[in-house]
Specification:
By secondary structure, this protein is mostly helical. The chain has one domain: Arc Repressor Mutant, subunit A (Orthogonal Bundle), CATH 1.10.10. It is 49% helix and 8% strand. It has eight helices and five strands. The strands form two sheets. It has a three-stranded antiparallel β-sheet with strand order 2-4-3. A two-stranded parallel ribbon has the order 1-5. Helix 1 crosses helix 6, helix 2 crosses helix 4 and helix 3 packs across helix 4. It is globular. The N terminus is likely disordered.
Length: 194
């Protein structure tokens, strides 16, 4: 994490509306994972038009997710960087129970895009796992568990899982041999009654 970049940003209704667009979410993820970039570079990486990428980068900037990188660029070339390593909902129920249809719509777009990203990432790993060294092929995990929990215990379990993941965040230097970015997905939801 760079000096300017706080770890996590709490989302509110306004910022959620600014983020809840599939391309904006992809752009923000690309800046978080790949570091600062121009609209042209991001457009090429994501297979989008430079005009569309520029528009959505400006929207992310208006809502405080990204900012221009003052150490790069010229008057003709704007470089953008992510302002946070991640985001969270402090009280997800405030969004899910919000009577404003714009907020509910933004939440729906956001959550469906997150689920789609998780599916794409997992599919990408499964498609390319044979290209990875044996050590990595033995180190991955795709588990699922069914537990009987109360809502309170489900929140406790998710909170403890988050704490565990955070405890690993800075244990490896970015340039350490064999270290690569690893995605962790956590899904906890009640199953329909049968």
């Amino acid at each position: 994490m760079t000096e300017h970049q706080p770890a996590v940003r709490s989302l509110d209704a306004r910022s959620l509306r600014g983020l809840a667009h599939p391309l904006r979410m992809r752009l923000l993820a690309a800046l978080r994972e790949g570091g600062p970039a121009t609209a042209t570079k991001l457009a090429a990486r994501l297979g989008e038009s430079s005009a569309s990428v520029s528009y959505h980068l400006r929207q992310l900037g208006v809502h405080g997710f990204i900012t221009e990188d003052p150490d790069r660029g010229t008057a003709r070339e704007r470089w953008w960087r992510a302002e946070h390593r991640g985001h969270r909902f402090d009280r997800l129920e405030d969004f899910l129970e919000n009577p404003d249809p714009d907020v509910r719509g933004a939440m729906d777009v956001f959550l469906k895009e997150v689920a789609a990203v998780h599916a794409r990432e997992l599919g990408g790993w499964l498609a390319s796992s044979g290209d990875w060294p044996e050590e990595w092929r033995r180190s991955w995990d795709m588990s699922d568990f069914n537990l009987r929990l109360t809502p309170e215990l489900a929140r406790e379990l998710a909170g403890r899982a988050h704490e565990l993941v955070q405890s690993f965040r800075d244990r490896v230097a970015a340039d350490e041999d064999g270290a690569v970015p690893v995605r962790i997905h956590l899904h906890a939801f009640p199953l329909p009654k049968s």
